[in-house]
Design brief:
By secondary structure, the protein is mainly β. The chain has strands at 3-7, 10-13, 18-25, 34-39, 46-51, 57-59, 67-72, 77-82, 91-97, 112-113, 117-122. Helices cover 0% and strands 48% of the residues. The N and C termini lie far apart (40 Å).
């Protein structure tokens, strides 16, 4: 059974930083595309960042230069370092995994999802 468990969310002031983690189990982690998504109240879920098995990354324009996605294959863990946070980054953040290595930031192609961790940025 595939499990993705996020942690690291919280409340910070504008300009602050948070580091999200996602612990994966139950599948072949190392060969899969992983991603972070977020959903704010009243808005659709959007892709934030994705990372391929070999390490190449993609980012939404709104977070480029502020967020960094990374993975530790030895620990089966995905990370999202978020710096210079803005109030518009406030959302529930989800970790997701594909069952294939081809990477994408389109949420519809991801097969497994975590339960989410809340990030709140105050001005």
């Amino acid at each position: 059974q595939v499990q993705l468990v996020e942690s690291g969310g919280g409340s910070v002031q504008s300009g602050g930083s948070l580091r999200l983690s996602c612990a994966a189990s139950g599948y072949t982690y190392n060969n899969n595309c992983m991603g972070w998504f977020r959903q704010a109240p009243g808005k659709e879920r959007e892709g934030v960042a994705a990372i391929a098995s070999h390490g190449s990354t993609s980012y939404a324009d709104s977070v480029k230069g502020r967020f960094t996605i990374s993975r530790d294959n030895a620990k089966n863990t995905l990370y999202l370092q978020m710096n210079s946070l803005k109030p518009e980054d406030t959302a529930m953040y989800y970790c997701a995994a594909r069952s294939v290595s081809i990477c994408s930031m389109w949420s519809a192609v991801f097969d497994y999802w975590g339960q989410g961790t809340q990030v709140t940025v105050s001005s």
